[in-house]
Each structure stands twice: as C-alpha cells, then as structure tokens.
Amino acid sequence: MKLDPATIERLKEQIAHYRAFLKDWLEPSNLARLRPTLEFQTGILAGFALLASVLLGVTNCSTEGTIQRRLDEDLIKSLEEVVPAALHDNDMLRDTRIIPSAGFNIGADETTVYLAKKSGIVTAVCFKFIAPDGYSGAINMIMGVDRDGNILGVRVLNHKETPGLGDKIEAAKSNWILSFVGRSLDNLTPTQWAVKKDGGVFDQFAGATITPRKSVQAVNRGLQLFQAHQAQLINP
Amino acid sequence: MLLSETYHKIAADGIWNNNIVFGQNLALCPLLAVTGTATNGLGMGLATLVVIIASNGLISLTRHLIPGEIRIPIFVLLIAALVTLVDILMNAWAHELYKVLGLFIALIVTNCALLGRAEAFASKQPVKEALWDGLMMGLGFTLVLVALGAAREITSAGTLFANASLLLGESFKFLEVTVIPNYKGFLLMALPPGGFIMLAFLIVGKRLIDQKLAQRKIQPALISAAITE
C-alpha cells in the first residue's frame, strides 16, 4: 500500500495535534486541577490497575514456555541425580506411568512414575512425592528406587524450611539426604524408619527435628507406594 | 565535593543517618526472617535494592498523575506488580539465581520501607533524585542485612558467607570462611530471638558512634570558647 503525500501530511498534523494535547494535559498545573475530581481518580486507579495487569499478563505469557523448559531441565537433572546413568538408556521423561497414590499421604492422588529401562527391561523407577507436613509447609522430594525396592537416591526439589536449620535436607547444604541410599523396607524395621530421637537410624539436625522426621516418614510412605505397585511397575 | 549538596545528603541519609533499619526502624520482618546467614542477607538486600530503585523511579515519574486520596492503593499496586515482574523474569532468565533467591523475592512485598520511600520521598521529588534515593536506601538496607547476617552466622555457626558460591557463582568461593573452627554452635542466634538480640547490639553500636561523632563536633567549639574567656 502506498500513501499519497497529502494523506501522510494530514496524519503528521494529527499526530502533532495529539502530542500537543497530551503535553498540555500532562502539565503539572493541569493535573493539579484534575486530581481532586472523582472521575479523574477513578480513571487513574483503573488505568494503573490495567497497566499492571497487562504488564504482568504479557510477561507471564511470554515467559511461560521458558519457565516450563527450565523446570523440565531441572526435572531431568534431578532424575539423573537419583537414578545413575548406567542404569538406563531410555528417555525417562517420555517413559512414564501413572499410578494411584491416594491413601499414602504423599501429597497427590496420582503419581507419575518415570521408568528407567536398560534394553527394554525396567531397572529402576523414579517418582516425585511430597511431605505435606514439613515444619513450614510441604517439602517436595524425588526418589529413585531399584527394581528390588532399594533406594538409589533421594533429593529435595523445593521446600520452605527454616534457612540455616531445616534446609540441611538439601544435598547442596549437607550430605544428610545421602543417608537414604541403600535403605529399603526389607533392611530396616518399621521402628528403624525414624530419626534417632524417635528410636530410628536417621540423624536429626540440631535445632530442627521436625524437618528430618517428616522427611523420613514421607520417604517411608513413598517406598510403601512403590511396594504396593512393584509387580505392575517392573514388569510392564 | 564529588556530589552536589542534595545528592550528598540523600546518600548520607540512606546509608547512615536515616537508614531504613537504624533510622526508620522499618522492614524488621524481612530483616529478621532472612538474616540467619550473611549470604541470605546479601541476596535479600540485592533483590530489595533492584525493586526499590524501580519503584522509586516509577512513582516519581507518575507523581503528578497520582491524587493524594488514592496514593496508597496505587503505590501498593505498583510495588506488588514490580515484585511479581522481578519474580517471573528471574525465574525465566536467571533460573539458577532464582532457585537460591526465589524464597526471598516474594517477601519484598511485605517490606514497608518501599512504601515508606514512595510516600516520603519519591512522590515529591524529581526522577533522578528518587532513583538516587532508592539506590542509597537499598544499599543502606543491604549493608544492615549483611552485617546482621554476618554477626548472627559467626555467633551461631562459626562460619561467614557459607554457601555464597550458590548465590554469586563459583568464583566467589573465597568468601566462604570458617571463622571459629570446631565451633559447637549457638542455636539461639540462628533463631528469631537471636535476630532481635543482635539487632539491638547493632543499633546500640550505631548510636555510640553517632554520640562520639557529635562530641567531636562540640569539643573544638568548647575550646575556642574557653580561649576567648
């Protein structure tokens, strides 16, 4: 489309006109006159609300994909931390199974289980679970279990526990979480599945007993979930 | 003098005289909540710094548009939107940093110091001064957070800047020091009461320094008065 010079000239004039109008309107003296009026106040409040929601909406939409990708990367990284690379040759993010987990008190009614397969045979499984009763909210965790029910690894994905005390459940801050490796429902009795203070085998932290206690209990419930579906999971 | 009179005064107010914590006694909630370690204090301080500069600038820019009767809801709206924006953008583009700082970002909304600066300064001053005020107030706040965090971390765990490399990257590993080796730990200082106790010591320290400075100013005057007598 080509505009003839006359139209362009008219458009330019109009833009100049609006700019002049906006400049006059934005003069502090003019705004001072408008500010006490109810119409102006309503409009301004609505305007700011609109601006804020548009800004947040646009940002949210434009970053949604990126954030999802980052979360996927995080997931792959944590899957690889709890399931050794030597145990699988498949893409665990695509090889999943959904099992019912209501009644195990691990925060969800259905749990997605990621299967680790080596030449088509399930060698280990990996799933996320939640300790819903942490000291200051839910503790999101992930664990890998080999086909016989021994823990390959547990990691905390995110939590709201006290910084400096309860956050020792993170692998980056202390190696407490590694004490789960090799444990299973068979090689520890139900009473041993507890922190030392409660007669079990797992350490608690100075000043934070609830965080590790609830974590141990949640890991235990996670293993029970695996045991309940073991046959079905390892022989797909 | 490097800075003009006004800018110099804003800087002195923000960092020392009218410091958010020492002078205004504001922002105690985020202050006491995160200063268990110096690293957490630094993270919170930097995040707050960014938001307070942005909110000061934005509010100063639109100050003629905002009627006095409804200024508070508008300030709250702007600050909350800014904090959420920082939260989303960091999650997408600085994901590693977000995993460490993410916990603190949402806490900035509860920081009444931001509203305080908007109300007391940014809504009455030109943009450049407001941005400068935001920077200086933010720096002053960061300073207190790091000082309080360091004092509590040393007394509670015997370390300084533990896990700083998680926040700032591997190249800052040298910041992580064990101040007292084989320290048994003094839990009280890591818990909220320890925060209050240590904060009281810091405030006393600041007052003592102020007193000394004031005395030094008076003394020369007294001497000259004695001579003339």
Topology:
The complex is a heterodimer of chains A (236) and B (229).
Chain A: H1 5-25, H2 28-34, H3 38-82, E1 96-100, E2 110-118, E3 121-134, E4 137-146, E5 151-158, H4 210-234
Antiparallel strand pairs in A: 1-2, 2-3, 3-4, 4-5
Chain B: H1 5-17, H2 28-34, H3 38-61, H4 71-93, H5 95-105, H6 112-120, H7 127-157, E1 159-160, H8 164-168, E2 177-178, H9 192-228
Helix pairs in contact in B: 1-7, 3-4, 3-5, 3-7, 4-5, 4-6, 7-9
Molecular structure report:
- The complex is a heterodimer of chains A (236) and B (229).
- Chain A is 42% helix and 19% strand.
- By secondary structure, chain A is of the alpha+beta class.
- Chain A folds into 2 domains: 5-64, no CATH class; 83-234, no CATH class.
- In chain A, strands 1-2-3-4-5 form a 5-stranded antiparallel sheet, sandwiched between helices.
- In chain A, strand 2 and strand 3 (121-134) form a beta hairpin.
- Chain A is elongated.
- Chain B has 229 residues and is mostly helical.
- Chain B has one domain.
- Helices cover 70% and strands 2% of the residues of chain B.
- Chain B is built from 9 helices and 2 strands; from the N terminus they run H-H-H-H-H-H-H-E-H-E-H.
- Chain B has helices spanning 5-17, 28-34, 38-61, 71-93, 95-105, 112-120, 127-157, 164-168, 192-228, and strands spanning 159-160, 177-178.
- Chain B has a two-stranded antiparallel ribbon.
- Chain B is flat.
- Chains A and B meet through helix 2 and helix 3 of A and helix 4 and helix 7 of B.
